[in-house]
Amino acid sequence: MPELFTTLIWLSVTVVTFWAMDRMVQRVGRPPLLHPVLLSTPVIIAALMASRTSYETYSSATGMITFLLGPTVVSMAVPIWANRRTIRRLALPISLALLAGALTAIITSVGIVWLFGAPQEILASIAPRATTTPVGMAISQTLGGIPALTAVIVIFAGVFGAMLATPVLNLIRVHDWRARGFAVGVSAHGAGAARAFEVSPTAGAYAGVGMALNAVLTATLLSILSLLL
Question: Which residues fall within 8 angstroms of residue 191, CB to CB, at 6 or more apart?
């Protein structure tokens, strides 16, 4: 019974906090630099510190939310299927952009922390940072990384990617919704795809394509690299 009570409390705190932050962001017009996940994080941290609740307890209590990430990712297949003919015609540019995006994400993230002398387990933890959380954690564990650290890195990479995508793409004058959506999906996975769906169904569909394909390609590239090393 105490475990059930704890689960209900922290599930409620998490959902209500996110709902409140999302409503606040919605009222100010959903500016790109405000994201409900980012705003909710310090509130949850403050609640955990005030109640002296460990991360392990919180993670166990909110496991249902983590579980729902899987079906959420799968549901993105619907808009992908609806745009399948257009996506098939763009197979070559999509493949080239996907390869460039995956390699850039791996090389830059691993390269930067390597220059600062990070140990191998940190390198393995940050390598899959452009994939979705479940995929990233699985890859991290296979490579000898720290799955919990990977989850944090992946989430913040997605949130910041979703926040910065619109200003950056506007700055470099990328206006095609297909290109914008695919770029956000490859670089900012689920959070980016969610943001893309908010602004355009077409961008959301291509973000889903980018996110799914990048997860597969990143897992493949890192597995090959692991075998070679």
Answer: 35, 37, 155, 158, 159, 161, 162
Read off the pLDDT of residues 14-38 as tens digits, 9 standing for 90 and up: 999 999 998 998 888 877 677 788 8
Question: Looking at residue 34, what is its pLDDT?
Answer: 78
Contact 181, 206 (CB under 8 A): yes
Name the average pLDDT for the chain: 84
Q: Look up residue 179 and give its two tokens.
A: 């290109």
Percent of the chain with pLDDT over 90: 8
